[in-house]
């Protein structure tokens, strides 16, 4: 098991390096290949009417006057060993992992990511708990009573949930439960400060996000359970006189969980990289909101930072999924 | 006797308020105890809810993030407006409705600048007793340092404009305070004593008072300047100081105890606290503004969905102000792209466009009046005119075809550029394409992202010429509310640059260049404004741009806040200097 985890970790690091190289190339190399000069790149980050000296100074300060491979080397070196950065009167050291500085605001990227991460984790984990519980529960009930009223009703609601965009459900939730009847708060409060207010503020966002995802889990669970409940080992379990609850949960659901864990790993990994629309709608200052601002400003270092962070979470989540397979399904052997 | 005196004072007070076009907040309640609305557009005519009531919290909300709270590193009108709470420039604008708000008044300076040497030298005396939030004195050297760091260190403080760099003598050679470690600094700014500052310019510049109204002249103590990081620990010279600053999320301001009202005739320091919330859902901002609990910091007005709701409900509409935003929406005609090098072809475009359809595409009259001049009505020098008048501003195909014939063409094929992330601009360009098609001018839409519109596309003359972009959608606002502040960057031939160009027509008319130079050297304001009117007319005669609409915004006016007045000095926004809280 340990050697398996080590192998996967090394593979994950290589994958992250590839992602960083590709992302870096997209933002720093492709514009050059398309004919954009370093001066034009630099000019995007200065105010109006820059002089030639201004452009040259900005170009130098952002490192755009160096070859792209040198810039990439400095970026990777910064993540591992930190980097020095000119802030005007002095030069400051950016400790590792240093993901560089925003070209627009000159703020260090890593502290921005870490300060926003708790918000994104709060949103993703809270919503995940809701969508997994509700999605799996609906899926199991629907599978046990296929084509019944409950099955059709639940699947209908699930389909509606996945069809409605976050812009609609999120804003509707805000309108009804925050503005019309002010049950929930609007300003995010960290869990460490006030857990109940934290939950109160995030609840509409959790529900809106869960509504979107639970439909997929309900349908996955339903189809998995329908298939599993007709398997021979289920018949054997019933023939042995096991209680129906044990048959369903310990044998049926456990076997049907594998595809759900796979999808969950991907979903939670992606969400930890930032739920762009949800964070925007609910004014949550998370990773997704940071990414949107960076993209709008064409601010390359934050875009790169968010991309790598998202890739990191997806890789880690997949690693965990592989490990969880064994626990969920004894038929799977890591070797 | 006493009662009569009080009654008389009350009567005089009420009369003064009435004459000043103001509405008073404290005794202006309806049966529910809420402050009565002053009516639609009241803040465009006078100060609404006039009050000196202290206490409470004023909340500003913004859907985005400002470029910077550092007064030396910002370029947005709303930050010029708001930053005055913690950064006092030498001059500022008097809180007043509409064009009255364009009136310059001394702030950190004791009086307006004293010009000498024909307007090439400007001297300012600082008020006495000025202090920073830590109690240390503010000196003219701090003002000089603030100008140097904001204009000559653009490799780190890159977001503000660089007018001082352009206009100060020797500005092109000075390396900035971070590279030049000597105490002398830029020699064209002199500080003979702690309360005097003298600026020496390359050329006469009679609107220098406008330049020093920028937050770049707000003092910064050199010992406390940390360059990029100064934004995290700004040393206040205004009536409020930072209690907390969370980058990209929130700033909280509290009273500056070392601010002295005796040194400041403008600020009232009314609320206990000022909270600036960033990255707020635009729908939430509208909800909070209409509920009377927040101000839309950016002053961009309510969302389209809220607009429909507000305009159909008289009670809600009474709490709105539809005001000019100090901007012109126009289409530049590229004089370097054939056949628009010929004035007749340009005139054909002028006559062909149905401006009402463009106005409709942009959101109707609430979002802008049909325009016919370069200068908008809220900029001094504006004079009503319409060189290419058509019935109902709906275009005249016959006249357009006549001009096309005079140009030697029966049809034209060209491209029109617009910003892909501005749907209203795309819609306006589409309406223009439809108008032009009727007279035989076939324009194809080319969309480019706004972040690179000027650096890579529309603002790169070689690119526009190569791509046959003859028509360029544009929106322009003045950096300071004068004809020069508005016209210089878009009409001066000397302002044409190879990238980041804003003279999109590539208009290089000797007469206009000379008139601009003459105007800025003319001391008399009326005479200067007459010259701006002449430039406007000359430009329209040459047909190098098509004015489409005078941009307007629909602001929600929070009912529970006091001293609200929409000012032309800050793009129609409410003047943020003295907004307080009325009892709700």
Describe the structure.
The complex is a heterodimer of chains A (335) and B (584). Chain A is mostly helical and 335 residues long. Chain A has two domains: 97 residues, no CATH class; 219 residues, MetI-like fold (Orthogonal Bundle), CATH 1.10.3720.10. Helices cover 73% and strands 2% of the residues of chain A. The longest helix of chain A has 36 residues. Chain A is elongated and about 85 Å long. The mean pLDDT of chain A is 87. Chain B is α+β, with helices and mostly antiparallel strands. Among the domains of chain B are: 124 residues, Periplasmic binding protein-like II (D-Maltodextrin-Binding Protein, domain 2, 3-Layer(aba) Sandwich); 231 residues, Dipeptide-binding Protein, domain 3. Chain B contains 17 helices and 19 strands. Chain B has a six-stranded mixed beta sheet with strand order 13-17-12-16-14-15, with helices on both faces. Chain B has a five-stranded mixed beta sheet with strand order 8-9-10-1-11, covered by helices on one side. In chain B, β4 and β5 form a beta hairpin. The radius of gyration of chain B is 25 Å and the shape is globular. In chain B, 56% of the residues are buried. Chains A and B meet through α2, α3, α7 and α12 of A and α6 of B.
Number of helices of chain B: 17
Spatial strand order of the main sheet of chain B = 13-17-12-16-14-15
Largest sheet of chain B: 6 strands, mixed
Tell me the domain tally of chain A: 2
Assembly state of the chains shown:
heterodimer
Under CATH, the homologous superfamily of the domain at 323-553 in chain B reads Dipeptide-binding Protein, Domain 3
Low-confidence segments of chain A: none
How confident is the prediction overall: mean pLDDT of chain B? 91
**CATH class annotation of the domain at 323-553 in chain B:** Alpha Beta
Strand fraction of chain A? under 5%
Structural class of chain A: mainly alpha
Helices of chain A, by number, come to 13
Number of strands of chain A: 2
CATH superfamily of the largest domain in chain A: MetI-like
Q: Sum up the overall morphology of chain B in one term.
A: globular
Please tell me the overall pLDDT of chain A: 87
Topology of chain A as a string of helices (H) and strands (E) = HHHHEEHHHHHHHHH
From the coordinates shown, what is the CATH architecture of the largest domain in chain A?
Orthogonal Bundle
What is the CATH architecture descriptor of the domain at 323-553 in chain B? Roll
